[in-house]
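To: structure desk
From: M.T.
Subject: fold request, one chain
Message: Could you run this one when you get a chance? Sequence is below, nothing fancy, just the single chain.
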Amino acid sequence: MRNVLISGAGVAGGTLAWFLAREGWTVTVVDRAPGPRTGGQAIDVRGAALDVVDRMGLGERLRAVRTRMRGMSMVDGDGHELFRSEEQTFSSGRLDSADIEVLRDDVVTILHEATDVEYVFGDSITALTEEAHGVRVEFEHGGFRTFDLVVGADGLHSAVRRLAFGPEEDFTRHLGQYLAIFPTANFLGLEDWQVWFRHEHVGGAIYPVRDNTELRVTLGFGSEPLPRMAVAEQKRLIAERLAGVGWEVPKLLEAMAAADVFYFDAMAQIHLDRWSAGRVVLVGDAGYCASALSGQGTSLALVGAYVLAQELGRAGYEEAFAAYETRMRPFVTLNQALATENAEGPASEESVERAKNAISLA
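Reply: Done. Structure tokens follow.
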């Protein structure tokens, strides 16, 4: 019997669980959250990743819940409109594209509902010990289990990567920005329309979701790496950095202070020389985070999970891990490069098209 533990119930973990279960693996997914995570921003499913969700039979469900923006505008710190477009948005590119922009929590929910495997929420991995015929895994809430393979699909701050490869700082490249994301009521009355604002070294984006009943708000600022801090300190820092900005920003900061669902992190990338160590392997942001600036993190997670599952269906784990890296490296390299281009403004259409299709799923 082949059994695998996947750490992380997000896009990469849920996708990998779906494909491995279909191939007869016994799959357990562990996540420190109490259930499927809510909140987050709108994410893009592009290029080869569209083929992955269609092969899972989930493409139509995702298309049914996609965002439906009519366009976007950019304002300055006083609310003066700088330009507008009814052809594209910064978040998803051209509005006539076949790409899908969808809320991250919708993707996670659909994957969770479609995947018939064991989920263990509210727990996490604390130790990994490779033995002759498997990996002994110890858990935060006690006990241990042994699995044939362990997959780290647990994001930028992966515990599996830290345990199997070393400290996070050895593999992180900071991109000079921090972002906060939270939901709030649509007090701006936006109707399928994004608004972006920028003032000196701070900025953000606001767009309506859930039939225009809710806003998803992104606030950001430029900074060198910061120490870890509690949520209350994160909110206080953002309020300090955006203090004095006009337009609707004071109301957005009030909404942030009251938000129960809140995300804050650095824009950073993960770079490793290899994505596997013995019977442990990384997928998605845990192995090759491109950051939100790339616009391709979700596609990397979907395609990476598919390729890893495909290779595990063809060969033993050592050969499969090697083939997975060989196929994914060029795709990851091009997509991580988009983040640098996006940091200076929207990446060129040529760069995006080249990056999102730079892999074969055969």
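Reply (cont.): The mean pLDDT is 94. Let me know if you need anything else for the meeting.
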